[in-house]
Amino acid sequence: MNLSSLSSLQWNLIAGGLAIFLFGISLMGDALTNFAGPKMRGYVEKYTSNPIKGVLVGIVITGLIQSSSATTVIAISFVKAGIMSLEQAIGVTLGANIGTTVTSILIGFNLGYLSYFIALLGVLIFMFSAKRKNKYIGEIFIGFGLLFIGLEMMGGSLEELKNIPGFEDIVANVGQRPFLGVLIGAALTALLQSSSAFIGITQSLFASGAISLNVALALMFGANIGTCITAILASLGGSLSAKRTSLFHILFNVSISLVFLIILDAYESLVRAISRAIGASDLMTIAVGHFTFNFIGMIIFIPLIKIVARFLRKVIPGKDSILTDLGNIELDEKLISAFPAAALSQTKTAVIQESVVALENIKATKSYLNTKDKKYYETSKEAEAMVNDMDTKIQAYLLNLSQNQLPPEIEKDMQTYLQVQMNVERISDLSENLADYYHEIYESGTGYGKEALDDLNDICDLVINNIVSAIEIFEEEDLSRFDKLTEDEAALNLMEISLRKSHYARLKTGIDMTTMASYVYNDILSTMERIGDHAYNIARATIEPVKTHDDIQIEDAEGNDLY
What we know:
Blueprint (H helix, E strand, L loop, with lengths): L10 H26 L3 H7 L4 H15 L2 H13 L5 H14 L2 H7 L3 H17 L3 H28 L7 H10 L1 H15 L2 H13 L5 H14 L1 H8 L4 H23 L1 H15 L3 H20 L3 H11 L6 H6 L6 H5 L1 H32 L2 H29 L5 H36 L6 H27 L2 H30 L6 H29 L20
Helix pairs in contact: 1-8, 3-4, 3-5, 4-5, 4-13, 4-14, 4-20, 5-14, 5-16, 6-11, 6-16, 7-8, 8-11, 9-10, 10-12, 11-12, 11-16, 12-14, 12-16, 13-14, 14-16, 14-17, 15-16, 20-21, 20-22, 20-23, 21-22, 22-25, 23-24, 23-25, 24-25
């Protein structure tokens, strides 16, 4: 290719059009995320009870937020926290691949002329809306319009590519060696961090006549492989289950791409046939290819989910240690500015993980109480160190998140998570104190009789029950469970009083107990009750969240809102 001939291209329009297109697709995705994102986690968690439901959730969520990578990352974080099984995560990942085709389908409608009016409508909505939710709608329209404006700017100039000497030879070479197209597509998608953006560019290139359909399809295969980079990064340093989920994402996209690469000619004919049958434009033709690629792949893998899960467990063998696994929290700094709702979702998952580690701490202290085995004392110390480390990371992450201009609902949830996380840390601290009490007793060569030991086990069981309930309330925001926990918290307070009386009664009967053991016994009861208080605080902070400035209403003497 003669490089001097490239100067004939209108590079200003290509560069400007590309910039507007990429900005438009980013703005639309961010606005959709902010509009639908705060509830995203709840939907993913609630409706993925089996792999098939996971597929549907993956489709819907990714279609809304326009990021299969974000959906996959969240699935990985859920697997890390033990909230979601590997099979469920596989289903979500399959659905996410379908959901990401929405952008290419939208581009396929080729709304070039109307795009200017769509963008104008978005600007008007944004300018004259007081509510933040409506401003997000305005941004969605603006991004949607800019997407097409950018494509239109690029289109005319890209069409000139085919007239440049030597360009057709390069395209023909890629057409003869489609594997090169796959590599190019994978590399550029990994660079852009968006398969939707790269496929949109591919659509524009094909529509302009600059590349053939088989080259466009090869680039599309590569785009699906390149998008795996985000899932790979999310699994680094994570649990075995998280690594297996990431491996599936790679396995799916690479294997399906290779299959379709082998049958590229037949697949090209299928795409052309479908496009002719529905009267699709050139832009929509690539969208048809993108959708059918992921749809056929999904159909192939759905019946194989359990088999694939078993295969992944053999490829990455081993069993996760609950503390080691839970201690590896996923807090992606890039999401703070690019995807605040996903950042907040990761924070919630991290707080749940921290809560479970704190729960394992008090369970370890109970085991130490009953067995005198020092390994449980060491487990308690390990859990406390983990919680402290997680506490530092979560607080730093939330501090960074708070530096951004956040929607009110995200800010409110962030304040709640801070309150919850603070109480979780105190639960772990107090659980370590219990372990220290038991250690002090056993190192002195004394202990408790069966009756006293049974009483301590009873109150510990109730405390553990309350912590579990609090975690579930925080995770699911279930008001009905809060009412039950309120009753259990009252029962815990009464039990502490009752057990103190029982202890005094035993002392009066002359039961052989050292002064130190007797003194520590009361401290143990007090510590148990304080742990229960913090568990209740977790639930209360969830159900009655801290109010932000946006929630505060100032009224005049007559009760009218001033602002």
